[in-house]
Design brief:
binds coenzyme a persulfide, 12 helices, Butyryl-CoA Dehydrogenase, subunit A, domain 2, Butyryl-Coa Dehydrogenase, subunit A, domain 1, three-stranded mixed beta sheet, alpha+beta, 387 residues, Butyryl-CoA Dehydrogenase, subunit A, domain 3
């Protein structure tokens, strides 16, 4: 937690400057080369971005959820690929260890994650287990012999963000083959260099070039039993759900940042572009698109801050986190669409960048739970509470 407003303001100002001066000018290069330059990653480490959420005692900045949201709104004002390179390490890849790991597991991994020395990826999704995460089939079967106490892991994980860069995976696998549901799933920390792990080819995606995903294949991979998160079997699905709940507020904050950037770009373009003898920003039909976007953006920003504050206060925010992810990601899609419309033909050309954002933001409605999964979580919570 940042203890005073001045320090928080200084952090936000330095992230904002980094985005403006280093990341925005590199957006096209990253998109064309599908790679984030090493120099930028080093600067991210120096800024502390890999350790935003990790406790100070392990070398991180230990931001509250509200502080994390404020940083993510600033980080959102550039290509989302930049956030992605540290996003799994501060979020879904580390939070399971932080929430449910043993003191030894935290001491072993969190300092190296916080410094950016180690990148972590979250390995939940499988070819046949996406939205229905509890149906996952990757097996981790305990095996004790003269080589020690291990789990033998077999299975394939899909769309794993940062897998090619990962030093560790937080892996969800079934330790009880007889239990086909959520309670048969356990969470592990797996060294990415372990024998028996191979990576598929890097996925060709619609957008977010520079952020990499691929399959991770486990073929009789031996994972030491001590790497079972919290040393408790059957708790992995709940760990994953808690991690995703937090991640949904984080992603919603990124959506707010990206929407802000697209709307600012669209407004600037509308002020410069003249048709019928005046800037198109003077036309009410263009103003309607600007105004609807501003109103929705404001609503999403307020929602994300409110959910973050509630979470910081210890409230159960399952519903609020899903409301934020649902509304902010859909809002971001609408703002992207209107921004392209305001740019007109120029919005369809790669030169103006808005076309790239349009493709990039489509992912927000899919990952860390589709919009439909958020609707299910919200409605189920409502029905449960009303019973
Ligand atoms: N925090 C803590 N525990 C949670 C939880 C949360 N946010 N959400 C669910 N759980 C618990 C439940 O309480 C339940 O435990 P009990 O059996 O002890 O009551 C257990 O987890 C199973 O939950 P549930 O019965 O709701 O599981 P379902 O199989 O019905 O699935 C959904 C629930 C659909 C919400 C879940 O599979 C999901 O989020 N899917 C999307 C996955 C996703 O986001 N993937 C993105 C890829 S990773 S980037």
């Amino acid at each position: 937690m940042i203890r005073d407003q001045e320090t928080l303001n200084a952090l936000l100002a330095s992230v904002s400057r980094f985005v403006r001066e280093r990341l925005v000018p590199a957006e096209n290069e990253v998109s064309e080369t599908d790679r984030i330059p090493d120099a930028i990653i080093s600067e991210m480490k120096q800024l502390g971005l890999f350790g935003l959420t990790i406790p100070e005692s392990y070398g991180g900045l230990e931001l509250t959820m509200e502080e994390e949201v404020l940083v993510m709104v600033e980080m959102g004002k550039t290509s989302p690929a930049f956030r992605s390179i540290f996003g799994t390490t501060v979020g879904i890849g580390s939070q399971g260890i932080l929430m449910d790991g043993t003191p030894e597991q935290k001491a072993e991994y969190l300092p190296r994650l916080a410094s950016g020395e180690l990148i972590s990826s979250f390995a939940l999704t499988e070819p046949d287990a996406g939205s229905d995460a509890a149906s996952l089939r990757t097996m981790a079967i305990r095996d004790t012999d003269d080589r020690g106490d291990h789990y033998i892991v077999n299975g394939t994980k899909r769309y794993i963000t940062n897998a090619p860069q990962a030093g560790i995976f937080t892996l969800m696998a079934r330790t009880n083959p007889a239990d086909k549901g959520a309670s048969g799933v356990s969470a592990f920390i797996v060294d990415a260099r372990s024998p028996g792990i191979s990576l598929g080819k890097i996925d060709k995606k619609m957008g977010q070039r520079g952020a990499h995903t691929c399959d991770v294949i486990f073929d009789n991979c031996r994972v030491p039993a001590e790497n079972l998160i919290g040393h408790v079997e059957g708790r992995g699905f709940k760990t994953a759900m808690k991690v995703l709940e937090k991640g949904r507020i984080h992603i919603a904050a990124v959506c707010v940042g990206v929407a802000r950037r697209m709307l600012d770009d669209a407004l600037r373009y509308a002020m410069d572009r003249k048709q019928f003898g005046q800037p198109i920003a003077e036309f009410q039909l263009v103003q309607a698109m600007l105004a609807d976007s501003q109103a929705e953006l404001y609503a999403a920003h307020c929602m994300v801050l409110d959910a973050a504050r509630r979470r910081d206060a210890g409230e159960n925010v399952s519903t609020e986190a899903s409301c934020c992810k649902l509304f902010a990601s859909e809002m971001c899609g609408r703002v992207a669409d209107r921004a392209v419309q305001i740019f007109g033909g120029a919005g369809y050309l790669a030169d103006y960048g808005i076309e790239r954002f349009y493709r990039d933001v489509r992912l927000f409605r899919l990952y860390e739970g589709t919009s439909q999964i958020q609707q299910i979580v919200i409605a189920r919570n409502m029905v449960r509470a009303a019973r």
